[in-house]
Write a structure and sequence with these properties.
This protein is α+β, with helices and mostly antiparallel strands. 30% of the residues lie in helices and 21% in strands. The strands form four sheets. Strands 1-2-5-4-13 form a five-stranded antiparallel beta sheet. The protein has a five-stranded antiparallel beta sheet with strand order 3-14-15-12-11. A five-stranded mixed beta sheet has the order 6-7-8-9-10. The structure holds iron/sulfur cluster (SF4).
């Protein structure tokens, strides 16, 4: 049973809005909106009313709340600087255009699906497209009038925006090499499909306390970052030698970062769907709904601990005990990103390649689809590092496919900096942003390639426009958190707080935020160059940047 103040001896706490403890009345505006009307109901209103009557007809509770359940956010009105982010009312930041997030569960796309996204971008999104670090593609400049036609086109190829945002189970991360990687522990694709088919768009989980991020992966390089998802099923060889999953709950970054805790349970592949539904139900029923900034599942895990969470899961939701299981087998020096040309289990090859900070375009996505098709592939994948992979290329076509990608400035053999720099959406479109990120990240890559062309070590640089950490500030070697800083002339300008030494895997740690470690955006390349040169000068034999 969940701990009580009597059992722990702690001071009684006031209710946190947990449904299972009887707090069914909404304790804030967000909860009230969700109670008033299920977020999923907005889909029909968009089709029947808003797309016909236009932006001004949209009910504010739908515009700033329920639209997210269908992957739609208003984007930031152009020309509002970062100093105004926290002081303006939400409606003053709203543009009349939307960001649309297409969910790509497991990062899996066919040529036809990728082409459809590319065509939607060129027809309705001013040719914008970003590959995100959660394997989605985001489009911008969407008009509400065009949303039904976009959904129709997505649906015709088996894609959707359902629950791509909102207090819902968002896109399910999966290894881009699932089913083809010679080293994979287990192919988790069937589990991802079952969770999607049974629960995405279901009203069972359309009102969670907050967003809920899942990863299900058998990747031996841990490419979906099980440490920082709300729930992760990470492949492991079970006690009897058959593969299954090690279960982690409660990971998340943002302002209170926490690594997921291992429950110590072994989950057979055929149990994943019901165990996922059980974990999601615990969150729905016991999650904290009073304060939004304490609503992610990590706060529940922090208070309960892994053992209590597992007990509640097993006793109240599954009705049986999961066996204890072995821990995932972490090794040193793993690169998680699947970049480059590598052999598949079936003798063909996959080619992982890097745009700059995930920024592409509809035209470029269509061109990638063409390149894949011309070289005999019907399968493209997105990664959790803002990169892409083409699967199933025969030996005799690898060279030509690589050349075609490189000709589009999609690097198959990228520099350290192209390979490992990510950037979130930033002030160009995001209403929470304080600084610009995408162009800043792209030009930083170019500068560092010019200044340090032979930098020998992997180093991750993650550029974020605010403390929310969408591009993973705290787990980068160099994590950059956007904020206003004071320049040498005493002016408030765009800049970054620097976090150093974060990482995942065997040396998992959150980056240290050293007081005074700040740089203006304009001085960012100089600052990073200084840090990297100092590392090269002082490092001992074999020492990596992460160490
Ligand atoms: Fe927006 Fe902040 Fe997330 Fe960047 S980190 S996309 S600025 S919320």
């Amino acid at each position: 049973m969940p701990p009580t103040s009597a059992s722990t001896g702690s001071r009684p706490r006031r209710g946190e809005g947990q449904w299972a403890l009887g707090y069914r009345e909404p304790l804030n505006k967000n909860e009230e909106n969700k109670k008033n009307d299920d977020g999923l109901n907005v889909q029909q209103r968009i089709i029947d009313i808003y797309s016909k009557a236009g932006f001004d007809s949209i009910d504010p509770a739908d515009l700033r709340g329920r639209f997210r359940w269908l992957g739609l956010y208003t984007q930031r009105a152009p020309g509002i600087d970062g100093g105004k982010t926290a002081v303006l009312e939400p409606e003053e930041l709203d543009d009349r255009y939307f960001m649309l997030r297409v969910r790509i569960d497991g990062g899996r796309l066919s040529v036809a699906q990728l082409r459809a996204i590319g065509e939607i971008s060129t027809s309705y999104a001013r040719d914008t497209a970003d590959v995100t670090d959660r394997q989605n593609v985001q489009l911008h400049w969407i008009r509400v009038e065009d949303v039904p036609a976009i959904w129709e086109k997505l649906e015709s190829v088996g894609l959707s925006t359902m629950e791509a945002c909102g207090d819902t189970p968002r896109v399910i991360l999966g290894c881009p090499l699932a089913g083809i990687d010679a080293d994979e522990i287990v192919d988790a694709s069937p589990q991802i499909d079952r969770i999607y088919d049974e629960y995405i768009g279901s009203r069972l989980f359309s009102n969670l306390p907050r967003k809920f991020k899942t990863s299900v992966s058998g990747c031996s390089s841990f490419c979906t970052n099980h440490e920082i998802n709300d729930v992760s099923f990470q492949g492991v060889v079970g006690p009897d030698g058959a593969p299954g999953f090690d279960l982690f709950v409660g990971g998340g970054l943002s302002t209170n970062p926490m690594f997921a805790q291992r429950l110590g349970a072994f989950v057979r592949p055929d149990q994943v769907t019901e165990v996922w539904a059980g974990v999601t139900s615990v969150f729905r029923d016991y999650g904290y709904r009073r304060l939004r900034h304490r609503a992610r599942i990590k706060f529940l895990i922090k208070d309960w601990g892994a053992a209590t969470f597992r007990e509640v899961l097993e006793k109240e939701y599954l009705g049986y005990a999961l066996p204890d299981g072995p821990e995932v087998d972490m090794r040193e020096g793993l690169q998680r990103d699947h970049i480059g040309v590598h052999r598949q289990r079936d003798g063909r090859n996959y080619i992982g390649f890097a745009p700059r900070v995930g920024r592409v375009s509809g035209t470029l996505l269509s061109r990638i689809a063409d390149i894949a098709e011309e070289h005999g592939s019907d399968r493209i994948r997105t990664t959790a590092d803002q990169k892409l992979v083409v699967l199933d290329v025969d030996d005799d076509r690898v060279e030509a496919a690589t050349a075609a990608l490189e000709a589009e400035d999609l690097r198959v053999r990228p520099s350290v900096f192209r390979r490992q720099t990510m950037a979130c959406t930033g002030i160009e479109f995001c209403k929470l942003a304080i600084v610009e990120t995408k162009d800043r990240g792209a030009s930083l890559i170019d500068e560092l390639e010019r200044r340090l062309p032979d930098f020998p070590e992997p180093v991750t640089i993650n550029v974020n426009g605010c403390p929310n950490s969408c591009a993973r500030i705290q787990v980068a070697d160099i994590g950059l958190k956007g904020q206003l800083v004071t320049d040498s002339e005493g002016q408030q300008v765009e800049g970054f707080q620097v976090h150093l030494g974060g990482g995942m895997g065997l040396t998992a740690a959150f980056g240290r935020k050293v007081r005074g470690l700040k740089t203006t955006s304009a001085e960012l390349p100089d600052y990073i160059e200084r840090v990297l040169r100092r590392f090269l000068d002082k490092r001992e034999d074999g020492e990596s940047f992460a160490a």
